[in-house]
């Protein structure tokens, strides 16, 4: 199983649809796409700053923002299957479809997860990877990471959220940080169950 987190910063870029089309073509029930928040989450941040609503409420709203991005993805490629539970993910996998996760229902049911901005779609993708016993987590950003930066550095400069390391370190899956154009190389590793020969491995 592959978990592919597509950052909200890809909205408006041709790379977003290119990623979706490629994952539909070669996903074959082995890929679950995790949406970022993007401009939908930015709207939540703006609303929180104007109203002073607490972080727990903003967290709930941000999860709905991820759901909206998931719906946008299926609008860009109707062959994608939406799934909001482990059972739905499994059923779509049996149908050999590429899956987009709508996270709000599963995440809100998990009381132990932080309800602050320290936990975003990056960490939720890692949480899902552990829950589904995935082999690889691909985190796709609009810019490639700087070589030599460790996870703590990437968290500190805002490329990854503050909780990310606690959800990926010492887990069974490998974590890769990719740029927007790495979709060009995704076919072979998914089809042949290989490790990617591109991007940046940040956990083994």
Describe the structure.
With 204 residues, the chain is an alpha/beta fold. It has one domain: Acetylglutamate kinase-like (Carbamate kinase, 3-Layer(aba) Sandwich), CATH 3.40.1160.10. The chain is built from nine helices and seven strands. It has helices at 14-26, 38-51, 55-76, 86-94, 104-108, 121-131, 151-156, 164-168, 187-192, and strands at residues 2-6, 31-35, 81-83, 99-101, 136-140, 174-178, 200-203. The chain has a seven-stranded mixed β-sheet, sandwiched between helices. Helix 4 (86-94) links the parallel strand 3 and strand 4 (99-101). The protein is globular, with a radius of gyration of 16 Å. It starts with a strand and ends with a strand.
Q: Which regions are unreliable across 5 or more consecutive residues at pLDDT < 50?
A: none
Strand order of the largest sheet: 3-4-2-1-5-6-7
Distance between the termini: 16 Å
Q: Mind telling me the CATH class?
A: Alpha Beta
**Tell me about the biggest sheet?**
7 strands, mixed
Provide the domain count.
1
- The total strand number stands at 7
Count of discrete alpha- or pi-helical segments spanning 4 or more residues: 9
Radius of gyration: 16 Å
Superfamily at the CATH H level?
A: Acetylglutamate kinase-like
